[in-house]
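Study this one:
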Amino acid sequence: MNRRFAMKSVIVAAGFAAMAACAPVMTTEPDVVDIAVSNGNFNTLVAALTAADLVETLKGDGPFTVFAPTDAAFAALPAGTVDTLLMPENRDQLVAILTYHVVPGAVTSDQLAGQVQSVATVNGAAVQIDGRDGVMVGNATVTTADITASNGVVHVINTVLLP
């Protein structure tokens, strides 16, 4: 190979390496909202987060622990409750309910095991967490724990928590 071509190849390769070093780091791990969107069991939660204008907040740096009620959990509420909460005039009430499902920090089930504690939620009210026999959050059971996200952790629950 000719020396001039080899030198150009080294310079081009160095240029690509420098560009790669300056490029923003892209994470492939989904955030807590991406997990809810892609799962298929959280359509109502995603609709509620959108109506409450909380999607961008929960896509933020966090970390967040989200106790995510399934569509079945929302369906178990009295008839018309979800539709009423999704109305623009009820946004504050919806925000209060949704932020009651979020705890600052990334809390995994092993950190809760064997303990009963009152934990402050993002909405300011405390929720009782009982980790002595599985994990209960208020009157909800964690059915799937420790879904890791780029900005926290998601625990699937079977009941909508009401502050």
Notes: Confidence is low (pLDDT under 50) at residues 1-25. Residues 41 and 113 are 26 Å apart (CA to CA). The chain has eight helices and seven strands. The first helix runs from residue 3 to 22.
